[in-house]
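Reply to dn_fold:

You asked what the input looked like. This is it:
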Amino acid sequence: MSPAPNDKPSRELAEEAVRVLLRWAGEDPAREGLLDTPSRVVKAYNDWFSGYNDDPRDYLQRTFEEVAGYDELIVLRDIEFESHCEHHMAPIIGKAHVGYLPDGKVVGISKLARVVETYARRFQVQEKLTAEIATAIQDVLNPRGVGVVVEAAHECMTTRGIHKRGVSMVTSKMLGSFRDDARTRAEFLQFIDVGPGR
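and this is what came back:
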């Protein structure tokens, strides 16, 4: 949940926090190479966490009903995203696959990517990210079902702690017919090339 606008610290306070972390790490924030670092970090945070400025559900409000009766699976796969772990503030780099079975209306495919992007640009855990994307699509579009699969590498695991590279995590959230109908689920997983024999 994002802080209320009046509770948001000033840019100056955020930059001072970066200077404190630099000193804590053993550096001198007044060193020439670090003079502009606090400003750069705050600017990067504005980009990395811009998802707090938007409601992802707003992107799904404009739908189209003139689809000639199309009622089969719609899948957008390999939606690349960058997020940050809420436990260590380390990057999470991955891709999301989103599918739904429309019930009379569809949404522009770029809007599905925007939903993924907006949720990703917040502090996250992958399980929550997966569920948030699926729930938003289900709640706004009210399709017959939704499936979301997220595959990601977590830098909190590769650059610290256990230091295991080449490991990816896969999470899924299936709603409606994607949960209740094994054939729909299997078709979705075949479309995104996830599952046995990959």
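The longest helix spans residues 126-141.
Hope that clears it up.
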